Amino acid sequence: FPYPPPQANEPTKTLKSLVNIRKESVRFVKVPNDKPAEVEGASPQNTYNIDFTFDADAKVAITIYYFCSEEISPSGVTLVPKDSLTSGTFHYKKGYNQQFSQPTHIFNPNLFAEDDLSFNQDNTHFPVAIHCVVEESNEDCKHSHTTICVIDRHTDGTYTLRALKQKIFVDGLCYLLQEIYGIENKALNKVAIDDETDDNGSECVICMSDIRDTLILPCRHLCLCNSCADSLRYQANNCPICRAPFRALLQIKAVQKKMGSSNNYNTQSQPNNENIPNGYEVVSLIEALNGPPQYLNTSVISSPIEIDKLEDGGKL
């Protein structure tokens, strides 16, 4: 037989992040012109507040550091700012979709060299780092989330804040968060559809019928169902989206607590129930993260959804 036998599917250990900043929500907000500047030498036109949205499963303390370096130890992440340039520490309770907005904290990018506002691999300092520390975590091993940002200057003299990368520190290890491509809900803005045009962008790109649930690594395209991914391993070694060679397949299952059949909005065929906890059922990963498309019956209330298993489909 010309092909080596595939490795057995092995469930991987999942990590629970207790706090997460929504990367796309990080932004500068201009201080109104009629508001006095609280930064010495700054004019109101060049001063900004920092806003973002975050979710927390525990009480958190949030601090913003400027031009800082990062020190990682088994007990946690420490950020060391240049010239003690930091905001105060702001405390938030547990909650989802929380808004960080502190009008008293004002930053003026014009006071700093333009090279200091960008980041490159040779530079060990981050222009802006938003550090969220879980206050209820173990003192000897602080659970934290860090969003690293750069500041872009435009030709009209204005500035924008852009999130560059995100890290979490969990159980004594620091992880770089990576984006998954193809997980967005493309049907979010649809109001009404008919059966012939029912396409919310969640189908496998090969069979065009089953829900995609398998990630291609290292390009991170979520574009395959598990069946097609298993077949692809023996037919090709390129991602069907970007054509880059891939080394592994990662199946991601989302589950929710079982409800009555009349309340279940997910009418797609269910995948195999291997490694699914009792009392739970598999749902579309895209609907798990984005909620059901808006054109579905909005009177249906879905139960909380949990990302339960990550399964490694085996290296090629």
State mean pLDDT (0 to 100 scale).
Answer: 79
Distance between the termini: 16 Å
Helix content: under 10%
Report the β-strand fraction as a percent range.
Answer: 35-45%
Number of helices: 2
Tell me the total number of β-strands: 17
Name the overall outline.
globular
How would you characterize the largest beta sheet? Answer: 7 strands, antiparallel
Alpha-beta content class: mainly beta
> Low-confidence segments, ≥5 residues, pLDDT <50?
187-198, 262-271, 295-316
Helix-strand string: EEEEEEEEEEEEEEHEEHE
Our Rg estimate from Cα atoms comes to: 23 Å
InterPro entries: MGRN1/RNF157-like, MGRN1/RNF157-like_N, Znf_RING, Znf_RING/FYVE/PHD
EC number: 2.3.2.27
Keywords: Metal-binding, Transferase, Ubl conjugation pathway, Zinc, Zinc-finger
GO biological process, one term: protein ubiquitination
